[in-house]
Amino acid sequence: MFYQPALNDHGLPFNPLKSCVVPRPIGWITTLADDGRVNLAPYSQFNIVGFDPGYVMFSANRHPPDWRRKDSSDNAERRGEFVYNMATWDLRQQVTRSSQIYDPAISELTAVGLTAAPSRMVRTPRVAESPIAFECVYHTTVGLPGDSIGTGHFLIIGKVVGVHIADEVIGADGKIDIARIKPLARLGYTDYTYVDKVVPIELEDDWAGQEDAAGHNRYGLVGGR
């Protein structure tokens, strides 16, 4: 099949677009409101976008029907910081519940029974029950226009200035035990999945050093002649 997203002419009972990019990591974002209330919300348009230094991004649309900005993007931009908390299978109920609270006067973190833990580099707290958290300083916002009035997305990018990793999820080999954490990920529709199996794939030595006619090796770098 082929369809044009602007026309929504796929002919299916549900829009398939988000099911075509899976699984998507969930950025469980804490921010601070001006009154000190902690906002907590999950975003499946989330990822790391740099590592030297580390940058992460999350993308938030607007709230219908008044199309106001979501609190996470607004708070992160105005306060200059936010925290990424890893969503896990064990915390799946709190993750989904935190996405269903729209009243800005309610702290989602408290409402779903979680604990605020202090950060070290920013004022925004992290979720104590989450095994991994990134303290982030706001870097920039990229506005993405929508196809209809009131829609659009705010892509928030932050620089990672502090990383929390629970000691118990670091294995004897010094690596993070992902299978133990069971990170939660979003599929399409109302479907989720989680990681409980890790399969290393090593490059073969004879492939790693090969170059094509243009002098590019398998890593996309230009080799010397």
Structure report:
With 225 residues, this protein is mainly beta. It has a single domain (17-199), classed as Electron Transport, Fmn-binding Protein, Chain A (Pnp Oxidase, Chain A, Roll), CATH 2.30.110. 12% of the residues lie in helices and 33% in strands. It has five helices and 14 strands. It has helices at 71-79, 92-98, 108-111, 178-181, 205-208, and strands spanning 24-25, 27-32, 38-43, 46-51, 54-60, 62-63, 68-69, 81-86, 116-117, 126-127, 132-145, 152-165, 184-186, 192-194. It has a seven-stranded antiparallel sheet. The longest helix is centred in the middle third of the chain and has 9 residues, at 71-79. The protein is globular, with a radius of gyration of 20 Å. The N and C termini lie far apart (46 Å). The mean pLDDT is 91.
Relevant terms:
225 residues, mainly beta, three-stranded antiparallel beta sheet
